[in-house]
Design brief:
9-stranded mixed beta sheet; 432 residues; single chain; 12 helices; 7-stranded mixed beta sheet; alpha/beta; globular
Length: 432
């Protein structure tokens, strides 16, 4: 009687719940729970929605997180976006990239130009920079109301028979058949699976987004300058918006201090000091950026063998996106691979829950089989992307005459095709 009164007085409404008679805990029942309303979490929820499957996305923040400003999406990402039905609307807000303009590390001037697909091996390729805000808001708009539950921080994960119990900081307990971790680099779900924590690569990235009200006038190209321990570049998102980045090794910067993370003015000053030989138009990109549109973050990656041999799937639990394969940004595949994950995962879960089966078939066995299929499809792909991104970043930023020579030869001949080759992947459609 007392328990019933407490349930009536609580502010939450339990549409589907049950009481554990042993512990007297109240569980909310959800067939599929996704932890994290980032790119992977929302795209996975949309993939499932397109197949007619309901999911609940838990987000620890009070509102939608739109950090990172922009991201480059390659061919594989656009195929994934088409699979969930939002590719065309985002294409209208972004510019197709044609190639690279490469600055000399000695003079800072743009001295060479390289078409992305100079040999015609990747006809129909796509490479566009998209505002993260546009991408995230498009995903949310396509989801049913109530899909995302904000201010819902996961603290622990338990098991109850074959279900998983997700404990939230506010005391709520969710009981679910499928638990998907899309909760980023510091994933609670990945930790529960026993995956090792991502490690620092010793580099950091300063990123910014700048608006040119009268138009930027830049060609649809990646404008880049590599070498000397720093990698700087920028590219247009659309006619009036430009995204830029600068990756560097803090231990090699005498003036670097931890307070940079809270001081965008120092970030800005550092980047300008590194590109002072470049044309004024390249410096203006940084100079005109508002300090509210500049961020700094350390670069981390999951050790490739941790992905190859670790438990990325266990029973009815799995991880996707940065919770699975955090990687360096050097080939622009972090967000792209997260989109791939989401479509493959949605399809595998759909096959497990929607295919007609006889009454003797066990649902949990189907779920486990579906997630194992997902893990098999994503393990080697993730391993490859993490490894290539790390190697490319090492080559692009390393100092020394030999590395400088190799960089000049390698970049002019192989970089564009390497980017397109890694993006030449089709995650498939959402067809059961």
């Amino acid at each position: 009687m007392i328990l019933a009164l407490l349930l009536i007085q609580t502010k939450k409404t339990y549409t589907k719940s049950e009481i554990n008679r042993t512990t007297m805990e109240v569980y909310e029942d959800e067939d599929i729970v996704i932890v994290g309303a980032g790119l992977a979490g929302l795209t996975t929820a949309l993939s499932l929605h397109r197949l007619g499957l309901k999911s609940l996305v838990l987000e620890s923040s009070e509102s939608l997180r739109i950090t990172g400003f922009a991201l480059t999406l390659w061919t594989n990402a656009w195929k994934a976006l088409d699979a969930v039905g939002i590719g065309d609307s985002l294409r209208q807000k972004s510019t197709q990239m044609k190639g690279f303009k490469i600055a000399s590390p000695d003079t800072g001037l743009f001295t060479s130009q390289q078409a992305l697909d100079k040999d015609g091996k990747f006809k129909g390729y796509e490479s566009r920079c998209v505002k993260r805000k546009d991408l995230m808001e498009t995903l949310v708009k396509e989801l049913p109301p109530g899909t995302i539950r904000y201010s819902s921080k996961v603290v622990t994960i338990d098991e109850h028979d074959r279900f998983k119990l997700v404990h939230l900081a506010d005391g709520t307990i969710l009981k679910t058949k499928v638990l998907i971790g899309c909760d980023g680099v510091n994933s609670v779900v990945a930790k529960w699976l026993g995956l090792g924590s991502p490690v620092s690569v010793g580099r950091s990235a300063i990123r910014g987004l700048v608006e040119f009200p009268n138009g930027s006038g830049f060609d649809p190209m990646f404008h880049v300058n590599f070498g000397g321990g720093v990698r700087y570049g920028f590219l247009p998102v659309d006619d009036k918006t430009v995204y830029w980045f600068c990756t560097f090794t803090p231990s090699q910067v005498p003036s670097y201090e931890e307070d940079w993370y809270e001081n965008p003015i120092k970030m800005k000053q550092f980047v300008l000091s590194q590109i002072n030989k470049m044309p004024q138009e390249a410096q203006d990109v940084v100079e005109r950026t508002l300090i509210t549109s500049i961020s700094l973050s350390p670069l981390k990656f999951r050790l490739p063998w941790n992905v190859l041999f670790g438990d990325i799937v266990k029973d009815n639990v799995c991880v996707a996106g940065d919770a699975l394969h955090p990687m360096t940004p050097d080939i622009g595949q972090g967000g792209c691979s997260s989109l791939e994950d989401s479509v493959v995962l949605g399809r595998c879960i759909g096959e497990a829950l929607l295919k007609k089966v006889d009454g003797k078939d066990d649902e949990f066995e189907r779920i486990e089989k579906g997630l194992k299929k997902y893990g098999k499809e994503r393990r080697w792909r993730s391993f490859s992307l993490i490894s290539v991104a790390y190697c490319v970043g090492f080559m692009q930023e390393s100092k020394g005459m030999m590395m400088s020579f190799l960089r000049k030869v390698w970049f002019s001949k192989y970089t564009p095709s390497a980017f397109l080759k890694m993006a030449n992947f089709d995650c498939g459609d959402l067809v059961i």
